[in-house]
Amino acid sequence: MTLRMFQSSVSSHMFPRVLLSSGPLSSTAAGRWSRFLQSSPILPHQLLRPAALSLNLPGIISSIWDSVLRAVPKKKTSHMKKRHRQMAGKALKDLKNINTCSGCGQMKRAHVLCPHCVEGMLSPIEYVGRESLITCFLILSASGATALKIHSTTDPDFPLVQSIDGVHKVGCHHIVTNGKGSRAVSVGFGGEINVWACREGTWSKDDAASGNMAGAAGTWAVALSDDGQYLAGVTQDGHIKVWDLNANGELIRDYETKGSFGTCLDMSADGRLIASGHENGSVYIFSTETGRMPFSLSGLVKPVRTVAFSPGGKLLAAAGDSRVIVLYDTSSGEQVANLSGHSAWILSLSWSHTGEYLLSSSFDGKVKVWSIDTRSCVATHSETEKAVWSAKWLPKTGKTEGFATAGASRSIAFYREATGG
């Protein structure tokens, strides 16, 4: 009897409208029910109240009204107008945004060329990246064969305009140019270094500067100063040497490292700094003014295959078998950023002319464009699965950027920035 009364009371609390229509309980049952409640400490005292008093009518009505409001769809028109206002404000903010130039460190407007970096340009066609194999009108390429190929950049089809055969008996593995594209230097597998001069659009060998460089044996990678006067080279035993080409190849500097194979080399645009990468993962920066090594950089434990100074010389990028691009501050030697994304050896690095973008190519055929401001990859090209040995920016002649790549596919590929128009 007690169990049945307990179940009935719980039902009346949960479903009051159903049990309110029942008749009143007898006095005997009420007495038993009252005595049961008094002797049952587990039941709450709220069960002693009538069922009608347990109703929370305002709460029920409020919940029903909230359900109705949630069921009504929002006005999409007002939401879209709000979104358009937000986007318009963002575009206006980006247009007026001021940031720091990655090339020279000066303040400039976002998304435009730095006026401090380009103030010395006579015209866009006359400016070219110092470290590039690409001159204002020509592309010089070496494919490991004995010949050098020269292609014209003034024609949209990039035709072959000159081929110099037999320049290196075993083959050529490095070629560099100065800033104006008037002088080039090539290095062969046989250890010979050839200096080339461009006169009226035709390249010829400079015999006076080529045959008189002392200590050139064992040179692997080279870098040419912006004016073409000084040539720096790193040797197989880790020495960094500097020659004066205007003085018939006189040796003027000889820096010594720990003796690891020198795999890559670069010189800053102003000629004050020289950076070298080595097989043991070491990266060194030398000062041509003091003749000393201010920094020995860490961060790469595997062979370094490419190093590149930014146009303003504020940053040095280094990469190789570790598959990570490391950025260093040349004034302090500190590691300021790591750019990760490549899944194979990184073989080449090239800065854009303003220093806002960094171009990289890898052994798996991928070419990536990195934003220095955001420290992120903004474009990836994977048209080939073969190694891309070199990637270089083209001279900027219009509103868009472009670059060229060459690799194991035995071809030169050209890319330009998509404008959307």
Automatic annotation (TrEMBL):
Alphabetized SUPFAM superfamilies for the sequence: WD40 repeat-like (SSF50978), Zn-binding ribosomal proteins (SSF57829)
InterPro entries in the record: Beta-prop_EML-like_2nd, Ribosomal_bL32, Ribosomal_zn-bd, SKI8, WD40/YVTN_repeat-like_dom_sf, WD40_repeat_CS, WD40_repeat_dom_sf, WD40_rpt
Task: List the GO cellular component terms.
Answer: large ribosomal subunit; nucleus
Gene3D superfamilies attached to this UniProt entry: YVTN repeat-like/Quinoprotein amine dehydrogenase
Q: What is a GO molecular function of this protein?
A: structural constituent of ribosome
Among CDD domains, the record links this protein to: WD40
Pfam families to which the protein is assigned, alphabetical:
Beta-prop_EML_2 (PF23414), Ribosomal_L32p (PF01783)
Biological process terms from the Gene Ontology for this record are: translation
Keyword list (alphabetical) reads: Repeat, Ribonucleoprotein, Ribosomal protein, WD repeat
Residue windows of the WD repeats: 221-253, 297-338, 339-380
Q: Where is the EML-like second beta-propeller domain?
A: 220-401
Q: Which HAMAP family does the entry link to?
A: Ribosomal_bL32
- What is the similarity comment for this entry? Belongs to the bacterial ribosomal protein bL32 family.
Instruction: Tell me what this protein is called.
Output: EML-like second beta-propeller domain-containing protein
Q: Which organism is it from?
A: Aspergillus hiratsukae
